[in-house]
Specification:
about 110 residues, 2 helices, elongated
């Protein structure tokens, strides 16, 4: 939603509300948890009885080698899940004069 107003023939002001509204969000993001299984330490895949070349990894060794919580979050004291549901709301105010640069400010 936005409102624009022209005044004194050469000036324009515009105010915008930009937002999303989330109801019954089906997904959640754990923003401080990292993937433990990467291409370099993947679990073996078996086709028949022959494992893929990277067969030395076990789930226990992957859990021991890679922490679940991102180290920067752990160091800051966030040792359990931080769950985020994203919703964005912003107010934008723009002012301009004919043949001049636009001045814009946004607040979240």
């Amino acid at each position: 939603m936005s409102v624009e107003h022209v005044f004194a023939k050469n000036y324009t002001a515009e105010v915008r509300y930009v937002g999303t509204r989330g109801i019954h969000l089906d997904t959640q993001n754990r923003i401080n948890v990292q993937n433990r299984v990467l291409p370099s330490n993947q679990l073996p895949t078996y086709f028949g009885s022959t494992p893929t070349p990277n067969s030395t990894n076990t789930l226990a060794s992957i859990r021991a080698a890679t922490p679940r919580i991102i180290p920067a979050y752990s160091a800051a004291g966030f040792t359990s899940n931080i769950v985020g549901f994203y919703q964005t709301v912003a107010l934008t105010i723009m002012a301009s004069r004919r043949n001049s640069p636009v001045v814009s400010r946004t607040a979240f």
